TrEMBL record:
This is Glycosyltransferase family 4 protein. Keywords: Membrane, Transmembrane, Transmembrane helix. The chain crosses the membrane at residues 83-102, 108-126. The keyword Transport does not apply. The keyword Transmembrane helix applies. InterPro entries: Glyco_trans_4-like_N, Glycosyltransferase_grp1. Gene3D superfamilies: Glycogen Phosphorylase B.
Length: 387
């Protein structure tokens, strides 16, 4: 049995794509006879507050699915203040350093990036010819920060670029969840060993039946983080509701604004459902006609994991985020595409959707495509051969 350590900023009971991705990876490796341990902060995402069950703890160790989970102290914050966010990252980095000093570590370590500083701390302390470091890159920072408007090209940006290069250079294998990420890494380090590791889901999808097909208005659903990058608040204001009803699940920075918007604008046909567990969410999602996957701005390297999860559910999609995600939707015939940020085109695309096409046959076809092209087990087997 091979020991392997995963260092991540997100892990259940936290919700979201990053948490799910790392949990499925850890669980999959454990099923393949790896002895898996995880280093992660005390749960705090996306609220920026330590979850009640973990308050007052400096470290908490537990076991789930034969995975040992070490939760370390963090100064939790989701503040827009960059100084406070930096302090939060540095606090977790400090906890990691303390852990590295006092504990024996496996020879194989998977490090999640971003956050860049956490990845940098891990790579800096753990790089060794006797240890294999695997960097799992889910988004390209600092490029993504620049495109989101969170960063500017100044001294800090150049410093982050140097940190990014250091992380790539001193990793033995780099996993990228998009072809754009792989291309970026190899443009900097042409000889670097890389592997395309998508965020494929690992769950049994609920059965879709004719009874889940709605009548009347087209029921569109968004489920996920209500953050600045997704732009759901703006989407709520820009949609044409003549023949559309929008349903929203999730939480995040824009939640309060969306909740305030709905009762004061009766012409906006929006239903906010709050946050529910992932299993219950899957059951709820299949009752809608289509789902929408938006990004406020096209982000180089980003491929929303919702594409693969919703395909497994057999849910037709409208993709409104640009980049590599568009090609995945088109190539696998998973739904419709509208130009990122172009709300007129989005409304035009929606208006042309023939509701008679949103039938059981379409949903089953999408599920079959997901099983064939987005199989978690096949991808994991290929990764294990690289480790």
């Amino acid at each position: 049995m091979t020991d392997i350590l995963i260092i991540t900023n997100y892990f259940p009971p936290e919700t979201g794509a990053a948490s799910n991705r790392i949990f499925h990876l850890a669980n999959g490796l454990q099923k393949h006879d790896f002895k898996v341990s995880v280093l992660t902060p005390l749960p705090n995402y996306p609220t920026g507050k330590i979850f009640d069950a973990y308050k007052g703890k400096f470290k908490y160790t537990s076991t789930k699915n034969n995975i040992t989970i070490h939760r370390l102290w963090i100064y939790a914050s989701n503040s827009k203040n960059k100084i406070l966010r930096l302090i939060a990252m540095l606090s977790y980095s400090f906890s990691l350093c303390w852990y590295f000093i006092w504990n024996k570590l496996p020879k194989t370590v998977i490090i999640q990036s971003p956050p860049l500083l956490v990845a940098f701390t891990s790579v800096l302390f753990l790089r060794s010819k006797k240890r294999k470091l695997i960097l799992n890159v889910s988004d390209l920072w600092p490029i993504a920060g620049l495109e989101l408007g969170a960063l500017k090209k100044n001294f800090s940006y150049k410093l982050l670029e140097k940190i990014e290069s250091f992380n790539y250079n001193h990793s033995d294998l780099i996993l990228g969840q998009s072809n754009e990420i792989i291309s970026h890494v190899t443009s900097l380090f042409p000889k670097k060993d890389t592997f395309l590791y998508r965020n494929f889901p690992d769950f049994v999808a609920p059965k879709v039946s004719e009874s889940t097909l709605s009548k009347g208005k087209l029921k569109i659903v968004y489920a996920g983080l209500l953050g600045m990058a997704q732009g759901i608040y703006k989407l709520c204001q820009e949609l044409d509701y003549t023949h559309v009803q929008l349903h929203i699940y999730g939480g995040g920075a824009e939640r309060d604004k969306i909740q305030a918007l709905i009762p004061n604008n009766s012409e906006l046909d929006i239903v906010y459902h709050g946050e529910i567990s992932r299993d219950k969410l899957h059951e709820a999602l299949i009752s809608y006609d289509i789902t929408i996957i938006p990004l406020l701005n096209r982000i180089y390297g980003s491929v929303p994991s919702k594409i693969f999860e919703y395909a497994r559910l057999g849910l037709p999609m409208i993709y409104f985020g640009g980049g590599e995600g568009e090609s995945i939707i088109k190539d696998n015939q998973l739904g419709w595409v509208a130009e990122s940020g172009n709300y007129s085109e989005l409304n035009n695309v929606i208006s042309k959707i023939n509701t008679s096409e949103l039938n059981l046959k379409l949903k089953e076809t999408i599920k079959e495509s997901a099983i064939k092209n987005f199989d978690f087990s096949t991808q994991l087997d290929m990764l294990i051969n690289k480790i």
